């Protein structure tokens, strides 16, 4: 078995071409090469709409690459793996289920007995600070609380691979910083490998071990930066450190150019 | 008054104000209900008066007092076809049975076609053709096939109920939030679990919308079926009254039908409220 020595995720020259309804083809990502080591927290940043989310759907098995290979734990991805967790940008909680039942959903789908599922769900609800909300329905919660439910529902499955698609982008700034800290805390015990897609460079530096900068769409990897800030980090304070600012400047010189290209293209479309 | 009465007075004025508001709201409700009742009474009185003064022909148009007499006569002494409750029960039974069969068929097929693309592609055109047909013309055929008994009425109720329910269930299954489906698959749901635990719950609000309309359709199916040919039922009462130029009888059957339909509608609304506890209370701001 080479699965113990192989990296958690490996993309080799992966491309994804979508057919648009009008019949034209749209290349979302091309020639993607990316390695995520086990237990590593990788943030992917790029201009809006460049194809960052497509990268995640390829790794998750929700979509297959048009060309190239996607390997998880050394094996090519065929369908959705049991060890993958995915936190979506929009709320993906079940509105007709209570908070507790939402968090139980994953284990129940996987055939865990009801009692055991309930115990594990309660445990994770306590860890995200929603223990007293288990009988509420999602519409009775705030946006931040719903996100916590989504995190608990993902972590309760003990994922080895955590994929996050701009999970906090819909939250207000304060809640966002709070959730980022909570995420780091929840993650620190699990040893899971994380791919965190965002368009917020500050967020990505504060969270990740490695920041991957994507080009303007069709996206491919432009540059990879290692983040050498010590852990454990507090998002609000790490931002103020001189090293953080240095890294920020360095990465922005690379990312800023792609953002400019995207914007000029948008202007050309509008004209 | 104690010395700290200023705070008390403030509290008192605040509760005065909220009481005032409550009174205004109550008055408005009273005004709406009162006007409603007055409108009905006015209409009935005008009808009665005009008919008695022979401005409108009382033989053709009848009048509220005669209609009331007819209802109480049917209720107390029975109709020419038998006791009144039996006629109501027959119609209700046919409508309910047709409704249940139509709803089950519509939901099952709608969800199945919504989930299984192959089925939708194969059966789609046929369903469109059947839907384009004015289905009430099938009632005479059913009468030939199933005879004068309840079966022919149930059949016409079924064909009327099936299509709106089917289309709503189909649409509901098609328009399930893609994120929700993707999320449940990531969480480990099998195809069957996605259908039962994600697609069906999210399609229920679509299906329920059609349930309201379709119960009315089931009643139409049963009544038209009875009207064309039956041994019992409210539709038969209508056609028998028409046959004897008894306008009051036709109206009386209409009144009974309206009451039955309203009761059924109320029951459905009650069930819906129980089932949709997870929805935000204010639907106008919700999804």
UniProtKB/TrEMBL annotation, chain A:
GO MF annotations in UniProt: ATP binding; ATP hydrolysis activity; glycosyltransferase activity
User: Which keywords belong to this entry?
Assistant: ATP-binding, Glycosyltransferase, Nucleotide-binding, Transferase, Transport
Signal sequence, renumbered to the chain: none
Presence of keyword Transferase: yes
Q: Does the keyword Ribosomal protein apply?
A: no
Q: Which PROSITE patterns match?
A: ABC_TRANSPORTER_1, ABC_TRANSPORTER_2
Q: What positions does the domain ABC transporter occupy?
A: 9-241
Q: What is this protein called?
A: Mannosyltransferase
TrEMBL record, chain B:
* Coiled-coil region: none
Q: Name the major location.
A: membrane
| Residue ranges of domain ABC transmembrane type-1 in the record | 88-269
Record's GO cellular component terms? plasma membrane
**GO biological process, alphabetically ordered:** transmembrane transport
Q: Kindly list the places in or outside the cell where this protein is found, as annotated in its UniProt entry.
A: Cell membrane
Q: What UniProt keywords are attached to this protein's entry?
A: Cell membrane, Membrane, Transmembrane, Transmembrane helix, Transport
Question: How is this protein positioned relative to the membrane?
Answer: Multi-pass membrane protein
Stored SUPFAM superfamilies: MetI-like
Keyword tRNA processing assigned to the entry: answer is no
Q: Where are the transmembrane segments?
A: 96-114, 126-148, 154-170, 206-228, 248-271
Give the top-rank taxon of the lineage listed in the UniProt record for this protein. Bacteria
Q: Which InterPro entries match?
A: MetI-like, MetI-like_sf
Q: Where is this region: Disordered?
A: 1-22
Could you confirm whether the keyword Thylakoid appears in this record? Answer: no
PANTHER family according to UniProt: ABC TRANSPORTER PERMEASE PROTEIN HI_0355-RELATED, ALKANE SULFONATE ABC TRANSPORTER-RELATED, MEMBRANE SUBUNIT
**According to its UniProt record, which protein family does this protein belong to?**
Belongs to the binding-protein-dependent transport system permease family.
Spell out the protein name for this chain: ABC transporter permease
């Amino acid at each position: 078995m080479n699965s113990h020595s192989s990296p958690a995720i490996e993309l080799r020259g992966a491309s994804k071409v979508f057919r648009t309804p009008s019949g034209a083809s749209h290349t979302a990502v091309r020639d993607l090469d990316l390695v995520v080591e086990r237990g590593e927290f990788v943030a992917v940043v790029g201009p809006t709409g460049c194809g960052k989310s497509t990268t995640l759907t390829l790794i998750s098995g929700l979509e297959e690459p048009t060309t190239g290979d996607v390997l998880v734990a050394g094996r090519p991805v065929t369908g959705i793996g049991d060890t993958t967790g995915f936190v979506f940008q929009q709320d993906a909680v079940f509105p007709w289920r209570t908070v507790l039942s939402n968090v139980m959903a994953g284990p129940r789908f996987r055939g865990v007995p009801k009692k055991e599922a309930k115990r594990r769900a309660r445990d994770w609800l306590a860890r995200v600070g929603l223990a007293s909300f288990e009988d509420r329905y999602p519409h009775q919660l705030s946006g931040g609380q719903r996100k916590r439910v989504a995190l608990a529902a993902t972590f309760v499955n003990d994922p080895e691979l955590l994929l996050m698609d701009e999970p906090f982008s819909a939250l207000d700034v304060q809640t966002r910083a709070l959730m980022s800290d909570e995420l780091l805390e929840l993650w620190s015990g699990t040893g899971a490998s994380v791919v965190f897609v965002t368009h917020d460079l500050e967020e990505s530096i504060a969270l990740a071990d490695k920041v991957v900068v994507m080009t303007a769409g069709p996206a491919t990897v432009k540059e990879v930066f290692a983040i050498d800030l010590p852990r454990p980090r507090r998002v609000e304070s790490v931002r103020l450190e001189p090293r953080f600012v240095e890294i920020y400047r360095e990465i922005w010189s690379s990312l800023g150019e792609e953002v400019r290209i995207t914007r000029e293209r948008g202007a050309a479309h509008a004209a | 008054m104690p010395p700290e009465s200023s705070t008390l007075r403030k509290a008192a004025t605040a509760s005065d104000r909220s009481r005032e508001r409550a009174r205004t709201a109550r008055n408005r409700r009273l005004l709406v209900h009162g006007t409603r009742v007055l409108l009905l009474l006015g209409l009935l009185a005008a009808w009665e008066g005009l008919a008695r003064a022979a401005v409108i022909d009382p033989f053709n148009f009848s009048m509220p007092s005669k209609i009331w007499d007819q209802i109480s006569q049917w209720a107390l002494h029975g109709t020419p076809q038998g006791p009144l409750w039996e006629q109501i029960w027959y119609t209700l039974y046919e409508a309910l049975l047709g409704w249940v069969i139509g709803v089950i068929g519509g939901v099952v097929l709608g969800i199945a076609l919504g989930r299984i693309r192959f089925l939708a592609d194969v059966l789609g055109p046929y369903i469109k053709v059947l839907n384009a047909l004015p289905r009430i013309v099938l009632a005479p055929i059913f009468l030939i096939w199933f005879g004068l008994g309840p079966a022919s009425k149930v059949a016409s109720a079924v064909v009327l109920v099936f299509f709106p329910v089917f289309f709503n269930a189909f649409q509901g299954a098609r328009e399930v939030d893609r994120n929700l489906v993707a999320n449940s698959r990531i969480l480990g749901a099998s195809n069957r679990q996605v259908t039962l635990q994600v697609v069906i719950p999210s399609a229920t609000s679509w299906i329920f919308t059609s349930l309201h309309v379709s119960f009315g359709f089931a009643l139409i199916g049963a009544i038209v079926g009875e009207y064309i040919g039956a041994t019992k039922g409210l539709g038969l009462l209508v056609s028998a009254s028409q046959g004897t130029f008894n306008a009051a009888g036709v109206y009386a059957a209409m009144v009974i039908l309206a009451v039955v339909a309203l009761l059924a509608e109320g029951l459905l609304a009650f069930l819906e409220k129980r089932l949709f506890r997870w929805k935000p209370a204010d639907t106008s701001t919700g999804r």
